[in-house]
Design brief:
Number of strands: 16
Structural class: alpha+beta
CATH superfamily: 2,3-Dihydroxybiphenyl 1,2-Dioxygenase, domain 1
CATH class: Alpha Beta
Bound molecules: zinc ion
Number of domains: 1
Largest sheet: 8 strands, mixed
Strand content: 35-45%
Strand order of the largest sheet: 2-3-4-1-13-16-15-14
Helix content: 10-25%
């Protein structure tokens, strides 16, 4: 079956070492790729995910040493949620307390226990306890596989109006309506991991301001180039501007701004993160695309040291 839903979420952060420490040590995600921002090679692009870096498990960051904080607002991803086994909510609540991570009281959202917290840059994150979380998990030094994050659960977008964005999700990106709760309207893809996009319509709210802790874009899955091209054509037919395909080394991407103002990407499932280093070694070396390899020494000289 064709897998639809989120491929990855990409955000801005402050200093790289702090970002790496929080997401790999506190949250127990695997660093699956250490590379640079292809559009700005003097900065890192860090990819976190599960053991194999499967689509739907990926959260990535552009760390900027002295980034001003962003402000959450309309036209942006408000919250990025991870899946954990339902029985692990208590374990994670204790862990956040133990690590000094402030969190909100546990709430039920669409019938699922949801623990909201922020990363060191103020990025709004949540852990959601789900049934059938699956057994595939990355066991880090501090987070055993039993409780480990199973990938993205979904994102919540803050919008002036929900309908125009909803139409793109259902008519182009392969998601379907999956329920309403208060001012939340939920859509689901066919993939269990990273399958959910929830729209929160809040007319009259301030627009988002990008900065540390804010999401730059969210990426949806396309099985291959042909599926991606068909989606691109459907967007153009709706009068949206879509970029040319860009080679991101681990997937190929097109980008467009959806009607609600959020930057969307459509990324291919192939070739994946094992294209330039074996699965066992993912994230261990700084990887550069062929075009930047001749500049490795200069690039390494300006990047801050991380593990
Ligand atoms: Zn992306």
């Amino acid at each position: 079956m064709v897998q639809t839903g989120l491929h990855h979420v990409t955000a801005f952060s402050g200093p790289a070492p702090r970002n790496l420490d929080f997401h790999t040590r506190v949250l127990g995600l695997r660093l699956v790729k250490k590379t640079v921002n292809f559009d700005d090679p003097g900065t890192y692009h860090l990819y976190y995910g599960d053991a194999a870096g499967r689509p739907g498990t990926i959260l990535t960051f552009f760390p900027i040493e002295r980034a001003a904080p962003g402000r959450v607002g309309v036209g942006e991803t408000q919250e990025t949620a991870f899946r954990i086994p339902r029985a692990s909510i208590g374990w994670w609540t204790h862990r956040l307390i133990e690590k000094g991570v402030a969190h909100e009281p546990l709430v039920q959202v669409f019938g699922e226990p949801t623990l909201r917290f922020r990363d060191p840059d103020g990025m709004m994150l949540a852990l959601v306890g789900v049934d059938d979380a699956g057994d595939e998990a990355w066991a880090s030094g501090e987070v055993p596989a039993e409780h480990a994050i199973r990938g993205l659960h979904g994102v919540t977008l803050l919008l002036e109006r929900a309908e125009p964005t909803a139409a793109i999700l259902t008519d182009v990106l392969g998601l379907h309506a999956a329920g309403r709760e208060g001012n939340l309207i939920r859509f689901a893809g066919s993939a269990a991991i990273g399958g959910l996009v929830t729209l929160r319509a809040v007319g009259g709210f301030l627009p988002a301001r990008p900065g540390a802790g804010s999401v730059h874009h969210i990426a949806f899955r396309a099985a291959d180039d042909a599926a991606q091209a068909a989606m691109g054509e459907a967007l153009v037919a709706r009068g949206l501007h879509v970029t040319e395909q860009r080679d991101r080394q681990y997937f190929r991407s097109i980008y467009f701004r959806e009607p609600g103002g959020v930057l969307f990407e459509i990324a291919t499932d192939t070739p994946g993160f094992a294209v330039d280093e074996p699965i066992e070694a993912l994230g261990s070396a700084l990887k550069l695309p062929a075009g930047l390899e001749p500049h490795r020494a200069e690039i390494e000289a300006v990047l801050p040291k991380v593990a």
